[in-house]
Design a protein that fits this description.
There is one protein chain. This protein folds into two domains: 3-144, Jelly Rolls; 151-239, Winged helix-like DNA-binding domain superfamily/Winged helix DNA-binding domain (Arc Repressor Mutant, subunit A, Orthogonal Bundle). The protein has helices at 3-6, 10-19, 24-31, 114-123, 125-151, 154-170, 186-193, 197-209, 225-232, and strands at residues 36-40, 45-47, 55-61, 64-69, 75-81, 100-103, 107-113, 214-216, 219-221. With 254 residues, the protein is of the alpha+beta class. The model is unreliable at 244-254 (pLDDT under 50). Strand 8 (214-216) and strand 9 form a beta hairpin. It has nine helices and nine strands. A four-stranded antiparallel sheet has the order 2-6-4-5. This is CRP-like cAMP-binding protein. GO terms for molecular function: DNA binding; DNA-binding transcription factor activity. It comes from Sphingomonas faeni.
Length: 254
């Protein structure tokens, strides 16, 4: 049996390849990284503000969310993480975590020692480039979310978020036109969108009543992708996925 069939790190290699060129040799090296797997129940903290770590965590399965809490104890969810994503890649370069990461659903996490990942990045510049690009794409997504909270109305804000989830999950193997899992409560959606749970409930019902989405406890189906894209003003460019949205080239080495 090949390492690609037994290592959960294949998801990480696939994720990196969405944003930057990954050779066969790069992929093999990534899959040979040491790791340890562990399951976490929904609500468990994967990372806490103020933590110092010597390893990165990658979602093998399940969903997680990153959030910050203000002095009054109010929560703002600043990103959602899906399988294949390393949710604390910045800790390769920053000693102390400045956000919390919690399991949104039951998750399997593969942890990779910082030392091994840094060594691989030093040995393989293309892997280092892919890790850097992935971190930059996270910043791009943060800017888009900031725009949404600051300048989109509630209906457009939610439609845009639903389009983003569908697009990201489609790139991870979801058949086009199929329902996708949205394991978020209305309170969690509210903390993501900067709204109240009551407002989210009203907007969700409006999108359902207008036929833009089908929503139930199991997830979301989008009957007409083009219509929801127009409603949310969604343009996938900020996700910088290859192909077809952007061609990310490695730096030239003289």
């Amino acid at each position: 049996m090949s390492i690609a069939n037994i290592s959960p790190l294949v998801r990480m290699a696939d994720k990196l390849a969405l944003h930057a060129p990954i050779s066969v040799e790069d992929r093999v090296s990534l899959l040979e990284l040491p790791y340890a797997s562990r399951f976490f129940e929904a609500g468990s903290y994967l990372l806490r503000d103020g933590d110092t770590r010597d390893q990165c965590g990658m979602l093998v399965s399940g969903f997680a969310y990153r959030h910050k809490i203000n002095v009054e104890g109010l929560r703002q969810i600043v990103s959602i993480h899906i399988p294949g994503e390393v949710y604390d890649l910045q800790q390769l370069h920053l000693a102390t975590a400045d956000t919390n990461v919690q399991a949104l659903t039951r998750c399997e996490i593969a942890t990779i020692p910082h030392e091994a990942l840094r060594r691989l990045a030093a040995e393989r510049p293309s892997v280092a480039h892919a890790l850097t690009v992935t971190t930059i794409v996270e910043l791009s997504m943060s800017r888009e979310w900031m725009l949404g909270i600051g300048r989109r109305d509630a209906r457009t804000r939610l439609a845009h978020l639903l389009c983003e989830f569908a697009f990201r999950l489609d790139k991870h193997g979801l058949p086009p036109g199929q329902a996708y899992e949205l394991p978020m409560t209305q309170e969690q959606l509210a903390d993501t969108l900067g709204l109240t749970a009551v407002h989210v409930n009203r907007v969700l019902k409006g999108l359902v009543n207008d036929g833009l989405i089908v929503h139930n406890r199991r997830g979301v189906t989008i009957p007409d992708w083009a219509v929801l894209v127009a409603q949310g003003g969604f343009n996938s460019r900020y996700l910088h996925m290859n192909p077809p949205d952007a061609i990310v080239r490695p730096p030239d080495h003289a």
